[in-house]
Design brief:
There is one protein chain. The chain is an alpha+beta fold. The protein contains eight helices and ten strands. Helix 1 runs antiparallel to helix 2 and helix 5 runs antiparallel to helix 6. The longest helix is centred in the N-terminal third of the chain and has 30 residues. The radius of gyration is 18 Å and the shape is globular. It starts with a helix and ends in a 5-residue tail after the last helix.
Length: about 250
């Protein structure tokens, strides 16, 4: 159960972008493209995100339409009152399939780039300091879905120069979720006495395959770790919570 809770928190970090853009999408259709749209969208997103991560808010710089049934938001900042930004997205595009709308179906694609994700600030807000994480990461994100159902997700982040740290306990818990084989046993034995894991290069990737969430974590530092996790969507259930009410 503890491992599933950890995976839920990691998925929450990965899908916080989805919270933002879908809440914004719902807000745009409710209030329309008005001069105060960015403020209204920011308030709506902040309300939904705060349900998952209390004490944080989101600010959208501007919202506007671009060709091909696409809504642009830029920039998007997520953080706490008086604290540094947790997440900065330089530009997010929400694309709608017009042919599906004619059939009264909402088919959408969301894509953007994480300009800066502060692991220390994220740890404070979500991990309550238990992850002992430090570092900055960036990378692309793409999500596709229909209505409030997420069909596919692609997120690939890499650490910026300087590397970072991660709690040894968290790393051990992640390794424990790997398939039971010799590799898992060797990795657990190698880091079982390490309270803190230092890495110079870090890569984090999340995707979907059928009814599973896929997560790959690559860390090169004190030890070389390549962790691959496959978890049934039904056993996690975080997306139902994340998506609940956003398009209502």
């Amino acid at each position: 159960m503890k491992k599933i809770v950890l995976f839920k928190r990691l998925l929450l970090c990965s899908f916080i972008t989805l919270l933002m853009v879908l809440a914004a999408f719902g807000g745009i259709f409710l209030w329309g493209m008005t001069p105060s749209c960015a403020r209204v969208v920011s308030e709506r997103i902040s309300k939904e995100v705060a349900k998952q991560v209390p004490g944080t808010r989101v600010v959208v710089g501007k919202v506007y339409l671009v060709p091909h049934f696409t809504i642009a938001l830029e920039p998007v900042r997520w953080g706490g009152a008086g604290n540094p930004d947790i997440l900065v997205l330089d530009r997010v595009l929400v694309k709608i399939a017009p042919r599906a709308l004619l059939k009264r179906r909402l088919v959408w694609t969301v894509e953007g780039r994480i300009e800066r994700l502060d692991l220390s600030a994220l740890d404070k807000a979500v991990g309550k300091g238990q992850w002992r994480s430090v570092g900055l990461v960036s990378g692309p994100v793409r999500l596709e879905g229909e209505g409030d159902l997420l069909k596919s997700v692609y997120l690939k982040c890499e650490t910026q120069p300087g590397g970072g740290t991660l709690s040894g306990e968290i790393v051990q818990n992640l390794i424990s979720m790997m398939p039971a084989d010799d590799t898992r046993g060797k990795l657990l034995k190698a880091i079982q006495s390490k309270p803190l894991f230092y890495f110079s290069i870090g890569k984090f990737e999340v995707g979907t395959e059928g009814n599973k969430y896929l997560m790959d974590l690559y860390l090169d530092g004190d030890h070389l770790l390549d962790i691959k996790i496959r978890v049934d969507k039904d056993s996690v259930g975080v997306l139902e919570t994340v998506l609940g009410g956003l398009l209502s």
